[in-house]
Write a structure and sequence with these properties.
The complex is a heterodimer of chains A (about 425) and B (about 300). Chain A is α+β, with helices and mostly antiparallel strands and about 425 residues long. Chain A has 14 helices and 20 strands. In chain A, β12 (about 225-235) and β13 (about 245) form a beta hairpin. Chain A is elongated. Chain B folds into two domains: about 10-125, 3-Layer(aba) Sandwich (Rossmann fold), CATH 3.40.50.720; about 130-300, 3-Layer(aba) Sandwich (Rossmann fold). In chain B, α1 links the parallel β1 and β2.
C-alpha cells in the first residue's frame, strides 16, 4: 500500500537527493502564520489569528481577537512544537488558554526562548514570533496534504480520517484510513475526484460543501505558488459545519522561486543555519552533521558517498559539502572557513574528481587555501582525473603537512586513522 | 551496438551560443562527436566556429533537424526556458532529448512529462551529465559524447553504466577503464525527482543490447526507481549487475513534513535499497571504490567475460 504511494519528493538540493536534511534547498519553508495568510488569500478557511514579535505587541495583537479560548503558538520552522520543551524547562510550544488574559501570560513564557522539538536537534530554535488564534471547537480531526508523487510525476492529494496523529503511524498501522488522489496536470483537480475523496472521509451536508471548497482552493494554492508540499494536520470540522485548517505546513520548490518574489519575501533567515547561508553565497552546498571528519567534494553523489566511506572505515562525517563542478580557489577557501567554523571538526578529507577541470589548478587552489586559512588540522587530499600527476606534484612540493590519498578508500582510511 | 547513441549519431546543441553550451560543444567536437547544428532563437544563419569546425546555427530545433538530419538534441538553455526547449524537441520529432540544465522548476517538468505522453521522443535528464558511447580511438576518441562528462576517461567495451550522479559515474567509469574494462554506453539519468528516463528504462536497453555483457547501477537515497529496477533485474536480466547506493549516512527525519516521510517510506533509505539489491542478486559495492571490483565479482560468479 505504502510503497505504491511511493517515492515522493524528497530532494534536498537541485543536484542531489537527501531526504530530511536541514537545508533550505530545494525547498523554502515558511512559518505557520505566513502559510495561513496564503491560505486565506486562496480561500482556504483558517481560524482567525494575529502575531506579535515583542512583549509590548501582545496586547495589541490579542485585541484583534474575540474574548474566549485562545491558542498560543510558537513560530519556528520545525515540527513537533506542541510536544517540544523550552531550554528554560517550560514544556509545550503550542498551548490552549481559556481566556485572552491567560494567553497573554502564556506568550511571555515562549517569546525569546529556545524551543527544542523532535525536529530541531538538541540546539533548538529561538522563538521570535508568537501566533495567537481563536481556539476552535473541534468535532473531528482529519489529515490533508498535497505533494509530488514521484512514481507518477503527478501531484497527489493524501488525506486521512485520522487527523492530528503522526501520519506515518497511520500509514503503517491503518493504511485503509489513508486515501490518495492523483491529479492529472493537464486538467487539474476534477470535481468527481473531490466528491469521491470527501465521501471516503465520511463528510456530508454543509461539511462536504465546505470541504470541497477548501480542497479545491488548497490545490490551486499548491499549483499556483509552485509549492513543494502543503500539509494540513489537523484539518477539522466544527459543530457548526465549518471546515478549517488548524495547522499549516508549507514549503516551496526553490527552483521556482525566481517567479515568486512574494514567496521569497517570506524567507526567514533566522530559521536557517548561518553556515549554510554563508555556503550558498559561494555556490557551495553545505549541510552540517554531527561527526568530526569534514569533507569537501565536487559533485553531490560523490559528496554523499564520501560521507558514507568515512563511516564505512569507522569515522564519522562532520558535513556534506559539494563545491560543484569547479572547485575554484575562492570556493575552497570559503569551504575551509565554513568547515573550521564547526568546533567538532578534527580533520578534513578533500575528494575531487577533476573530470574536465585540471587537477593541477585544483591542487594549486587547495595549497593557497590551506596557507590562507592557516589550516592546522590533519588534511587528506584525494585527487583524480585530468592532469592528476601534476596536481599531486603540486601538493607534494607545497611543503604543507597534507597527506595524499590514491583512491577514495585509501583517503578515507588515512583520515580516519589521523583523527582517531 | 551501444544504446541510445552511436558514434554516427548527429546531434543538435540547444544553447550553443551560451558559455556552458559552447564550452561543452567544443569538448564534444574534440571527442569526434557529430555536432551538426546549434539552436539559438534569433541567431539562425550564424555559425559556431571552433578550429576547423563550422557548425550552422538555426532558429528552431525543427529547422536544425530538417537541414541536418540530426535525431538527438542536447539542452543547455537556462532553467526558465528549458521546459520549452524540451517540448521543441518533441515537436520536431527527434528520437532523443538530453537535458543537462540544472534547476528546472518541478512544476514545469510535471507538465512536460504529461505533454510527452505518447510522444516518440525520449527524454534523458534533466539535471544530468548526459550520455557517452565511447569510440575506438585514443582515449576513446571518435565516440558520441552528449553533455558534460569527461570523454577521455572512457574506453570502448562491454559494460553499461547508469547513474543519477555525475561525478559518481565518472568514478565508476574511471575504475573500469583503469582495469582495462571498456563501456558500451554510460548514461546519467539525472538527480531531479521528475525526470524522463529512469534506471529501469536504461537497464532494459542494456539487457537487450548484445554488446553489453555487464551493468553497473548507481543509485541514491530517495524515490524507489532503483528498487523497481532491481526487481525487474531479478526477474528478467541474466547479465551480471553491480550496484551502489549513495547516502547511507544521510540522517533522516529533520526537515521533511510527515507526508513526505511516509510517502518516502521504508524503501527510500540506502539500507533498504541495498537489501533489495542483495535480494535481487545484484552484487553490492561496499564503497564507491569497489564499484568496478563488484562487477568483476558478479561477472566471475556468472562466468561472464567483461573485456
Amino acid at each position: 500500500m505504502l510503497t505504491k504511494l511511493g517515492s515522493v519528493f524528497v530532494r534536498a538540493t537541485p543536484r542531489f537527493i537527501l531526504p530530511d536534511l536541514p537545508t533550505n534547498f530545494p525547498r523554502m519553508n515558511i512559518h505557520e502564520y505566513q502559510a495561513k495568510a496564503l491560505f486565506e488569500k486562496f480561500g482556504v478557511a483558517v481560524p482567525k489569528g494575529t502575531t506579535a514579535t515583542n512583549h509590548e505587541a501582545f496586547v495589541t495583537a490579542l485585541a484583534a481577537l474575540p474574548e474566549g479560548p485562545t491558542m498560543v503558538k510558537s513560530q519556528i520552522h520545525a515540527g513537533g512544537r506542541g510536544k517540544g520543551t523550552f531550554t528554560n524547562g517550560f514544556k509545550g510550544g503550542v498551548k490552549f488558554c481559556k481566556t485572552k488574559a491567560d494567553a497573554l501570560a502564556m506568550a511571555s513564557n515562549m517569546l525569546g526562548q529556545t524551543l527544542v522539538t523532535a525536529q530541531t536537534g538538541p540546539a533548538g530554535r529561538k522563538v521570535q514570533t508568537i501566533y495567537f488564534t481563536v481556539a476552535s471547537d473541534i468535532k473531528k480531526e482529519y489529515y490533508l496534504a498535497i505533494l509530488l508523487d514521484r512514481a507518477t510525476s503527478r501531484p497527489v492529494i493524501v488525506a486521512s480520517t485520522e487527523g492530528g496523529m503522526d501520519i506515518e503511524t497511520v500509514a503503517h498501522d491503518t493504511p485503509e484510513k489513508l486515501f490518495k488522489v492523483l491529479i492529472d496536470p493537464a486538467y487539474g483537480i476534477a470535481d468527481f475526484q473531490i466528491r469521491d475523496l470527501i465521501s471516503k472521509l465520511g463528510l456530508a451536508g454543509a461539511e462536504a460543501k465546505n470541504a470541497a471548497k477548501l480542497i479545491r482552493n488548497l490545490y490551486t494554492m499548491y499549483w499556483e505558488t509552485d509549492a513543494a508540499m502543503v500539509e494540513v494536520n489537523p484539518l477539522i470540522t466544527t459543530p457548526t459545519g465549518d471546515v478549517l485548517a488548524l495547522d499549516a505546513k508549507v514549503s516551496f520548490d526553490s527552483n521556482a522561486l525566481y517567479r515568486h518574489p512574494e514567496i521569497v519575501a517570506l524567507r526567514d533567515l533566522n530559521e536557517e543555519d548561518p553556515k549554510e547561508i554563508e555556503a550558498s553565497k559561494y555556490s557551495l552546498s553545505y549541510i552540517a552533521l554531527d561527526g568530526n571528519i569534514a569533507c569537501l567534494v565536487n559533485g553531490a553523489g560523490l559528496a554523499m558517498s564520501t560521507m558514507d566511506i568515512i563511516q564505512h572505515f569507522g569515522g564519522t562525517p562532520a558535513n556534506f559539502l559539494d563545491v560543484g563542478g569547479g572547485a575554484s580557489k575562492d570556493q575552497v577557501i570559503a569551504a575551509f572557513k565554513i568547515i573550521l567554523g564547526d568546533p567538532n571538526v578534527k580533520g578534513i578529507l578533500v575528494n575531487i574528481f577533476g573530470g574536465i577541470m585540471d587537477c593541477n589548478v585544483i591542487a594549486t587552489g587547495i595549497v593557497e587555501a590551506v596557507k590562507e586559512v592557516g589550516l592546522k588540522l590533519p588534511l587528506v587530499v584525494r585527487l583524480e582525473g585530468n592532469n592528476v600527476v601534476a596536481g599531486k606534484a603540486t601538493l607534494a612540493a607545497s611543503g604543507l603537512a597534507l597527506v595524499s590519498g590514491d583512491t577514495m578508500a585509501d583517503a578515507a582510511q588515512k583520515i580516519v586513522k589521523l583523527v582517531a | 551496438m551501444a544504446i541510445l547513441i552511436t558514434p554516427e549519431t548527429k546531434i543538435i546543441v540547444q544553447g550553443i551560443t551560451g558559455d556552458f553550451g559552447g564550452r561543452h560543444a567544443k569538448l564534444s567536437l574534440d571527442y569526434g562527436t557529430q555536432v551538426v547544428a546549434g539552436v539559438t532563437p534569433g541567431k539562425g544563419g550564424q555559425f559556431f566556429e571552433y578550429g576547423t569546425h563550422k557548425v550552422p546555427i538555426y532558429n528552431s530545433v525543427a529547422d536544425a533537424a530538417k537541414a541536418t538530419g540530426a535525431t538527438v538534441s542536447v539542452i543547455f538553455v537556462p532553467p526558465p526556458f528549458a521546459a520549452d526547449a524540451i517540448l521543441e524537441c518533441v515537436d520536431a520529432g527527434l528520437d532523443l532529448a538530453v537535458a543537462i540544465t540544472e534547476g528546472i522548476p518541478i512544476k514545469d517538468m510535471i507538465r512536460v512529462k504529461r505533454a510527452m505522453t505518447g510522444a516518440k521522443t525520449r527524454l534523458v535528464g534533466p539535471n544530468c551529465p548526459g550520455i557517452v558511447t565511447p569510440g575506438t580511438g585514443k582515449d576513446s576518441f571518435g565516440g558520441c559524447r552528449i553533455g558534460i562528462a569527461p570523454g577521455y576517461i572512457h574506453k570502448k567495451g562491454h559494460v553499461g553504466v547508469v547513474s543519477r550522479s555525475g561525478t559518481l559515474t565518472y568514478e565508476a567509469v574511471f575504475q573500469l577503464t583503469s582495469k582495462n574494462i571498456g563501456q558500451t554506453t554510460c548514461v546519467g539519468i539525472g538527480g531531479d525527482p521528475v525526470n524522463g528516463t529512469n534506471h529501469l528504462d536504461v537497464i532494459k536497453l542494456f539487457n537487450a543490447d548484445p554488446e553489453t555483457h555487464g551493468i553497473i547501477l548507481i543509485g541514491e537515497i530517495g524515490g524507489n526507481a532503483e528498487v523497481e529496477a532491481a526487481r525487474w533485474i531479478k526477474a528478467n536480466c541474466k547479465k551480471p549487475v553491480a550496484g551502489f547506493i549513495a547516502g547511507a549516512t544521510a540522517p533522516a527525519g529533520r526537515r521533511m513534513g510527515h507526508a513526505g516521510a511516509i510517502v518516502g517510506g521504508a524503501e527510500d533509505t540506502a539500507a533498504a535499497k541495498i537489501a533489495v539489491f542483495k535480494e535481487c542478486g545484484i552484487e553490492v559495492a561496499a564503497t564507491p571504490s569497489d564499484m568496478a571490483d563488484a562487477l568483476l565479482r558478479a561477472a566471475k560468479a556468472k562466468g561472464v567475460t567483461l573485456t
